[in-house]
Write a structure and sequence with these properties.
single chain; 235 residues; Cyclophilin; 2 domains; 6 helices; 13 strands; elongated
């Protein structure tokens, strides 16, 4: 059983943020998802939105709420002995690590005393857990980057990173769903679309799902680029 320490949490009117001091893990994500569902069930229309972070849960309120009620919800979840299992879904994302699609790959590999192929192998060998979306619509925050690949972000961000760029920054890897400024090291690119505002929901993966990168050739990249939806149809 996890002991509740209210000093772990900070709650203010209209916008609340619940914080955990424990390390980021599947177990913490299970707890966050369970608490999110419990709060929605308890407060319903009084909550406008809830967003998960790596070690936080942010709540935007439509109306006033009782601090004691929220604390009781937190206590209820913290005292549970077990939580629903996370998704076993693994989304396989095709990535071209070649040529113009991987502008920073060789320099980053050299800085790590790795070959390009060793870096690609480390990056694509194991699945990553999707914890939440942020920064840009459809930008996945993924947990599980091999510690050999952890890299400080660029001191001078680029003005434009192409949509679909697969990159490394800090202890994270991610995919730019749209063209954007960015300070991460670009090691590949995927032809798959990650955000469609005309669909409900606009993203296809949910927090708790896993993502695994699958190396593809430039020829496969160009084929999928013409019809990116076909990739999941073939899965």
């Amino acid at each position: 059983m996890v002991e509740l320490n209210l000093e772990h949490y900070s709650i203010t009117p209209k916008l609340s943020e619940i914080k955990w001091k424990e390390e980021v893990s599947d177990q913490l994500l299970q707890k966050q998802i369970a608490l999110k569902k419990h709060l929605i069930n308890q407060f319903q229309e009084r909550i406008q939105e809830i967003r998960i972070g790596f070690k936080t849960l942010g709540i935007c309120w439509n109306s006033n709420f009782s601090l004691e009620e929220v604390q009781n919800c937190i206590r209820h979840i913290e005292q549970l002995q077990a939580f629903p299992a996370l998704s076993e879904k693994v989304w396989k994302i095709p990535v071209c690590y070649d040529g113009e699609y991987s502008r920073d790959l060789f320099a980053l590999a050299k800085s790590k005393n790795l070959t390009a192929q060793e870096l690609i192998h480390l990056h694509s060998s194991n699945p990553y857990r999707l914890h939440f979306y942020g920064f840009l619509p459809g930008f996945m925050y993924l947990q599980g980057l091999h510690n050999k690949l952890h890299s400080p972000r660029k001191s001078i961000p680029e003005m434009e990173v192409p949509a679909g760029s697969v990159a490394i920054g800090g202890s994270q890897t991610g995919i730019y769903p749209s063209s954007s400024p960015g300070g991460w090291y670009i090691i590949g690119q995927t032809p798959i679309k990650f955000f469609d505002p005309h669909k409900v929901p606009p993203v296809w993966a949910e927090p708790g799902d896993k993502v695994q990168f699958m190396p593809i050739t430039e020829e496969e990249f160009l084929r999928l680029k013409k019809n990116p939806e076909s990739y999941f149809e073939d899965e």
